[in-house]
């Protein structure tokens, strides 16, 4: 969680019951108002603004939706028409829709009003996580688009914003920019953390089992955020991670933030059950870890050597043994058979074994390898 | 410190810093220190009376005339490729149009009509721009001059002659045998004998003196089927231009125009949407003057009239009352030498034309790329207010190629050129003239000149027999031309059994071997780690003898990097070394099973990092990528082993 970027100020959450169902399909829903501080790249120096984020919880107490009222345009020179827009997110911080009050309209350049299709296109732009507005700066939008030099000897319209028509509402780039960054900025993390607070064990299990990667990532991230390490949840995280590499980084991060018992156990399971990528990430994690493992842990890991197939896995394993478990008889005996593996692996094993204490038979096998491959060492 | 002592230790310091060695075998250009005779005018001092000119001879492989950005790129690349080089610059500072004397922005490819928009040039010009932000975040132009100076003089094969102009050439049939150059500050004539000559001077006095074919003016539509060219050919060229820098005095300041100022016809001028006063910080590109007869011969007259127009415009801004934003603004600097856009274009074996740029003709001898719009300034400049200040004929969907055959003379066999004087039509020049593009051409011309000298061939012979080798060397040295991946047979990284990284967040490690050292539109060519302190490992089946590992890292080529006269134009840029760039790294070789550090780089400032070391026999290389200049992960585009 990047708290450097995000400032959340929660002042006196206001709980109240909402009875008429106008804004939600739930008959009895609960709303919580969070006063938050959030930045927008359109403000000078990514200036922070205070705003009210409303969390909607269903009758089971789970966050199901969030919304916030924002201004349609960040207007530097106060000459734009600014109207309130309500933006809705789901409980994962994903943008859902926008709404305007009855009779309110959005405006384009030179006071043209949005047409019906412009509203549809705006929804499409705001739904696009990779919209060009993601990387556009407000000064590019505010630059007057005319075919002119941008420098003493410069190009036509070099700093003027150029967007394909399909990517913007012509004449309303500033509105698109403003709303896109409200919809997709730091607010997403803020929402996820609020939504995470309402989750209980069963909710986590359901999310982890959902087969939906976004929900699974949200669950692991929130388990980490809230430091929840219940056995059943850990098991589920491992199970889901071994079948989906997309969870790997977040899951290993979650385990790295736990205590040593949980961490080493979880990593071992990933090494037992995981695929190549998962083993590589696990071995790298062990290499960098400063936690103290249970006694005999690395010797036990050497029993998993047959699970390691690729050169990179073996290479990492050897580095791990060299730095954390040198001169282990168990490790040596597990490695000897690998002298008959493919050249890249066997050569690496050979060099490792050269520095270990070996018995006579093992020495002999090493010599045989040397004689056969001395030109390739 | 006493003055005497200062000079003692100061001289040592200068020697240690390599100041004197740059003069190579010409350090004795002034009188011998053992000669204690007093120089008395007309008193019979032998060798002084009558002909005061000193004479020296320099024998080099490559002579580069012109120390602008193209000439710097040519000279440095020739020297780096093993040639003994002399760089002759007629001004006291390096940089040409980009120097503090003229202050033209080092623009590059931008405003492309594709997702990238900006496609920054790599190689020498990028090294210079990064180095400038390191030494000169204050954006001082005089400091920039010395950044260029430092960059040039530290090249061990390169001799720099400042304040030195080409005077004459001696020919041997169709070859230049030597060029005589006069250094005004030392009253010394240098006869420079070289195998190869590069004219990067813009106006091209040396090349013209040698009899190299050139054109000046505009081709008509028909000759090259150029739709934006005038119907009939004429002598007009794009004009010269003055820059300025102002300062805000914090209170109203008057301006009094000089006597020779020409009143500005603002009413007519401002009818053109391009002739606008959008800022009062850095001058106006449309205050320019050109010629349809002989812009070189008229240059001093043009300078005067241009100054007169400039002050007329500034008088209007300050005193018409129409620009209240200029009330507190005062001129702080104004050029005395106009920046130059166009004069001679020397003819090569190929003339690049408008259609090649618009149609992106694919050349088997591509050596650079361009992509600035077809930005043809109007004939006459500010004295022709009936036409738009510039015709922005067209922008480009993708970068175009510049072929090598545009960089050497069709009739002088050992003459190359780079910059605005290359073999292009007037229309093509309206795009290729931009400094970033010219610098890439300079790097190509210098590299080619060094190869020609080394192989004993002329540039045409190089094109015919060694073009692949030239392209490979340029790509190795971090040039780029689209649709031409590198495939250097000497690169042993191509033969690895496996390459892998400690982590991957984007791309993949094997893409570092695909020969393309930047991401192209919708085509990834990079590997990016998850974080810092990462590793990249290459493993061969059989032992390799290696002496260097060369890598190309990320500097964000889609972000502009140039210095501006108006700081407002730095928006979106990074004032400093690109945060994405690798800062510290080390290279290890596995020798007899042990990882041994063979080289390291600390506080790296270049995209291309070459780590050279004593030859090792190894089966694996591991690069430890420690930290960047700010980014939280490491991104790179290429790794090579030699």
Write a concise synopsis of the structure shown.
The complex is a heterodimer of chains A (about 375) and B (about 650). Chain A is of the alpha+beta class and about 375 residues long.
Architecture overview:
The complex is a heterodimer of chains A (377) and B (642). Chain A has 377 residues and is of the alpha+beta class. Among the domains of chain A are: 14-142 and 155-189, no CATH class; 200-271, no CATH class. Chain A has 15 helices and 6 strands. Chain A has helices at residues 116-127, 138-142, 173-184, 187-197, 201-208, 213-225, 231-242, 248-256, 260-273, 276-288, 297-302, 311-324, 329-335, 343-354, 360-373, and strands at 14-18, 29-39, 48-57, 63-71, 84-90, 95-99. A 6-stranded antiparallel β-sheet of chain A has the order 1-2-3-4-5-6, with helices on one face. In chain A, α12 packs parallel to α14. In chain A, 36% of the residues are buried. Chain B has helices at residues 3-16, 69-80, 124-135, 141-153, 205-209, 221-224, 266-269, 299-319, 354-358, 426-432, 435-455, 459-476, and strands at 54-65, 85-88, 158-161, 164-172, 175-183, 188-199, 214-215, 240-241, 244-248, 288-289, 329-334, 345-346, 366-370, 374-377, 390-394, 400-403, 415-417, 498-501, 506-507, 527-528, 534-553, 582-591, 594-601, 608-628, 635-641. In chain B, the strands form 7 sheets. In chain B, strands 18, 19, 20, 21, 22, 23, 24 and 25 form an 8-stranded antiparallel β-sheet that branches. Chain B starts with a helix and ends with a strand. The chains are: A alpha+beta (377), B alpha+beta (642). The A-B interface holds A 137, 139-140, 146-159, 162, 249, 281, 284, 311-312, 315, 343-344, 347, 350-352, 354-355, 375-377 and B 103-105, 107, 110-111, 113, 117, 241, 243, 273-274, 276, 282-286, 339, 341, 372-373, 375, 390, 392, 395, 434, 497-498, 500, 502-503, 530, 537, 539, 541-543, 564-565, 569, 571-572, 590, 592-594, 619.
């Amino acid at each position: 969680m990047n708290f450097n970027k995000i400032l959340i100020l929660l002042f006196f959450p206001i709980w109240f019951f909402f009875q008429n169902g106008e804004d939600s399909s739930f008959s009895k829903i609960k709303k919580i108002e969070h006063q938050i501080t959030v930045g927008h790249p359109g403000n000078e120096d990514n200036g922070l603004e205070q705003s009210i984020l409303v969390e909607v919880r269903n009758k089971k107490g789970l966050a199901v939706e969030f919304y916030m009222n924002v201004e349609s345009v960040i207007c530097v020179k106060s000459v734009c028409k600014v109207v309130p827009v309500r933006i809705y997110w789901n409980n994962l911080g994903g943008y859902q829709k926008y709404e305007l009050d009855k009779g309110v309209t959005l405006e384009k350049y030179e006071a043209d009003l949005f047409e019906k299709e412009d509203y549809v296109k705006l929804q499409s732009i705001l739904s696009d996580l990779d919209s060009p507005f993601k990387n556009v700066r407000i000064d590019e939008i505010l630059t007057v688009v005319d075919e002119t030099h941008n420098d003493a000897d410069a190009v036509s319209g070099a700093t003027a914003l150029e967007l394909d028509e399909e990517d913007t509402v012509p004449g309303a780039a500033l509105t698109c920019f403003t709303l896109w960054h409200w919809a997709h900025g730091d607010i997403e993390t803020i929402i996820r953390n609020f939504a995470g607070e309402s989750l209980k064990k069963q909710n986590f299990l359901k999310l982890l089992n959902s087969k939906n990667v976004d929900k699974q990532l949200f669950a692991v991230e929130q388990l980490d955020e809230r430091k929840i390490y219940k056995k059943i949840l850990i098991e589920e995280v491992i199970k889901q991670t071994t079948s989906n590499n997309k969870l790997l980084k977040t899951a290993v991060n979650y385990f790295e933030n736990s205590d040593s018992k949980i961490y080493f156990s979880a990593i071992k399971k990933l090494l037992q059950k995981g695929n190549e990528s998962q083993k590589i990430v696990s071995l790298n994690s062990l290499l960098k870890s400063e936690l103290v493992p249970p006694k005999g842990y690395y010797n036990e890991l050497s029993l998993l050597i047959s699970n390691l197939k690729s050169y990179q896995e073996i290479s990492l394993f050897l580095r791990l043994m060299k730095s954390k478990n040198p001169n282990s008889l168990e490790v040596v005996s597990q490695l000897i058979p690998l002298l008959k593996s493919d050249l890249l692996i066997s050569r690496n094993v050979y060099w490792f074994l050269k520095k270990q204490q070996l018995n006579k038979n093992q020495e002999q096998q090493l010599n045989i390898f040397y004689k056969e491959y001395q030109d390739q060492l | 410190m006493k003055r005497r002592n200062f000079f003692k230790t100061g001289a040592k310091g200068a020697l240690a810093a390599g100041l004197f060695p740059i003069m190579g075998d010409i350090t004795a250009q002034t009188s011998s220190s053992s000669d204690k005779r007093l120089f008395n005018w007309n008193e019979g001092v032998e060798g002084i009376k009558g002909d005061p000119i000193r004479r020296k001879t320099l024998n080099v492989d490559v002579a580069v005339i012109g120390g602008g950005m193209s000439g710097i790129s040519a000279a440095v690349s020739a020297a780096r490729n093993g040639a003994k080089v002399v760089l002759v610059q007629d001004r006291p500072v390096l940089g040409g149009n980009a120097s503090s004397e003229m202050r033209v922005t080092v623009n590059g490819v931008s405003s492309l009509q594709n997702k990238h928009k900006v496609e920054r040039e790599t190689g020498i010009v990028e090294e210079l721009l990064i180095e400038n932000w390191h030494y000169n975040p204050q954006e001082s132009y005089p400091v920039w001059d010395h950044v260029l100076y430092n960059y040039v003089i530290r090249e061990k094969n390169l001799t720099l002659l400042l304040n030195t102009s080409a005077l004459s050439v001696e020919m041997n049939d169709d070859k230049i045998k030597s060029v005589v150059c006069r250094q005004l500050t030392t009253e010394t004539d240098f006869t420079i004998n070289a195998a190869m000559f590069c004219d990067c001077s813009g106006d091209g006095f040396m090349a013209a003196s040698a009899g190299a074919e050139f054109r000046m003016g505009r081709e008509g539509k028909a000759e090259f089927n150029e739709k934006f060219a005038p119907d009939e050919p004429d002598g007009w060229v794009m004009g010269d231009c003055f820059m300025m820098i102002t300062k805000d005095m914090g209170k109203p300041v008057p301006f009094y125009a000089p006597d020779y100022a020409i009143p500005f016809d603002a009413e007519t001028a401002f009818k053109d949407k391009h002739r606008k006063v959008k800022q009062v910080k850095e001058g106006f590109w449309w205050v320019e003057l050109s010629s349809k007869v002989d812009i070189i011969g008229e240059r001093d007259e043009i300078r005067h009239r241009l100054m007169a127009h400039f002050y007329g415009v500034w008088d209007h801004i300050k005193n018409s009352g129409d620009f209240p934003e200029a009330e507190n603004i005062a001129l702080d600097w104004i050029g005395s030498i106009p920046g130059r856009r166009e004069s001679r274009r020397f003819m090569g074996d190929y003339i690049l034309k408008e259609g090649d740029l618009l149609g992106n003709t694919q050349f088997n001898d591509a050596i650079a790329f361009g992509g600035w719009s077809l930005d043809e300034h109007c004939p006459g400049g500010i004295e022709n207010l009936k036409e738009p200040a510039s015709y922005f004929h067209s922008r480009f969907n993708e970068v175009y190629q510049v072929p090598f055959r545009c960089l050497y003379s069709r009739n002088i066999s050992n003459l190359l050129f780079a910059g605005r004087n290359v073999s292009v039509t007037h229309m093509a020049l309206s795009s290729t003239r931009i400094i970033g593009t010219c610098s890439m051409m300079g790097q190509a011309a210098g590299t080619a000149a060094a190869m020609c000298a080394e192989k004993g061939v002329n540039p045409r012979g190089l094109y015919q027999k060694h073009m692949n080798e030239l392209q490979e060397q340029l790509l190795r040295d971090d040039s780029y031309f689209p649709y031409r991946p590198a495939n250097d047979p000497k690169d042993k990284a191509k033969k690895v059994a496996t390459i892998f990284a400690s982590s991957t967040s984007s791309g993949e490690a094997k893409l570092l071997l695909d020969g393309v050292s930047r991401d192209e539109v919708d085509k990834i060519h990079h590997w990016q780690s998850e974080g810092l302190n990462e590793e990249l490992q290459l493993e061969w089946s059989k032992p390799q003898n290696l002496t260097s590992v060369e890598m190309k890292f990320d500097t964000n080529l889609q972000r502009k990097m140039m210095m501006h006269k108006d700081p407002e134009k730095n928006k979106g840029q990074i004032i400093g070394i690109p945060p994405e760039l690798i800062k510290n790294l080390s290279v290890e070789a596995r020798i007899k099973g042990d990882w041994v550090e063979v080289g390291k780089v600390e506080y790296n400032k270049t995209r291309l990092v070459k780590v050279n070391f004593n030859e090792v026999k190894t089966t694996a290389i591991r690069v430890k990528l420690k930290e960047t200049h700010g980014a939280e992960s490491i991104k790179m585009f290429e790794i090579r082993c030699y």
